[in-house]
Design a protein that fits this description.
6-blade_b-propeller_TolB-like, 293 residues, SMP-30/gluconolactonase/LRE family protein, mainly beta, SMP-30
Length: 293
């Protein structure tokens, strides 16, 4: 059964492809992206204000470096962004010589290592990869990925999760908790079936995996053993990624998209692309800072 928990619209700006939400608990600020439109959203949750920053390029995720800087993952590389004025400086290129690809799902491990997914701009099969930015250097973890999603980590940092969405499989891989790098091969944790597909995920304080089911208008919660425990309704069919927000990290921010919808589909799904807050009664975890050196 799908639970209908209290839900509000954080932003009614319809994102073409809303993605990459994260939350800075030190400032009560949520961040997310419209990948296709090259926009970064900034929401002060306590005050209710939402600002939109034009980036001039496709970008999909960020990691907090410190109180003054963020690391933005974009289609051609990683950029350091100053919070004070939005100035962006290239930190290192990533697939900059391949205009057919862009960044997609990403998340920071507890060690400060940043896992970064790339994919073809037209979702070309096996055009992307999952990388790790570890202490300032990028290495390839998993090549030949079509649509990387569900990158997240267990609370102890010893397990990483990811999916290649067309394969409909969520993988678990053993990690070195001190580095966030694999120490074994990925194994199948669960196989998705039915409506929708595995999109973005985040792990809570109990190790449960909260997954946005793209095309099904819901968030599915899985145990660390791959058992589905809950499903929460989202008022947009193409839910894309969740993040824990709020001072006690008990609420769930969920992005969505209107990508690939024609006029009739958008009329039938009027909140497609909106960004939502769900009163999920979660036990979330704060996102760690990314470490550059």
């Amino acid at each position: 059964m799908i639970e209908q928990v209290p839900t509000t619209v954080l932003s009614d700006h319809p994102c073409h492809l809303g993605e990459g939400p994260t939350y800075d608990v030190t400032t009560d600020t949520a961040w997310w992206f419209d990948i296709r439109e090259g926009k970064l959203f900034e929401a002060q949750l306590g005050g209710g204000s939402v600002r939109i920053h034009a980036l001039g390029r496709m970008a999909s995720a960020l990691g907090r470096i410190d109180a003054e800087r963020q690391l933005i993952v974009a289609e051609d590389g990683l950029y350091i962004r100053k919070l004070a004025d939005g100035e962006m400086t290239l930190f290192c290129p990533l697939e900059a010589d391949n205009p057919a690809t862009r960044s997609n799902d990403c998340r920071v491990h507890q060690s400060g290592t940043f896992w970064i997914g790339t994919m073809g701009k037209k979702a070309e099969p096996k055009a992307g990869a999952i990388y790790a930015l570890h202490r300032g250097k990028i290495s390839t973890l998993f090549p030949g990925i079509s649509i990387p999603n569900s990158i997240c980590f267990s609370p102890d940092g010893a397990t990483g999760y990811f999916t290649d969405t067309p394969r409909a499989v969520l993988y678990a891989v053993p990690l070195n908790p001190a580095t966030g790098l694999p120490r074994g091969e990925p194994e199948v944790l669960l196989r998705h079936s039915g409506i929708g597909g595995l999109d973005g995920s985040v792990c809570d304080a109990d190790g449960q995996i909260w997954n946005a089911c793209w095309g099904a208008g819901r968030i599915d919660v899985y145990s660390p053993q791959g058992e589905r425990l809950r499903s929460l309704g989202v008022p947009a069919k193409q839910a894309s990624c969740p993040a824990f927000v709020g001072p006690d990290l008990s609420r769930l921010l969920v992005t969505s998209a209107w990508q690939d919808m024609d006029a009739a589909a958008r009329a039938a799904d009027p909140q497609a692309g909106c960004t939502f807050l769900l009163e999920a009664a979660a036990r979330g975890r704060a996102e760690p800072d990314v470490k550059l050196a």
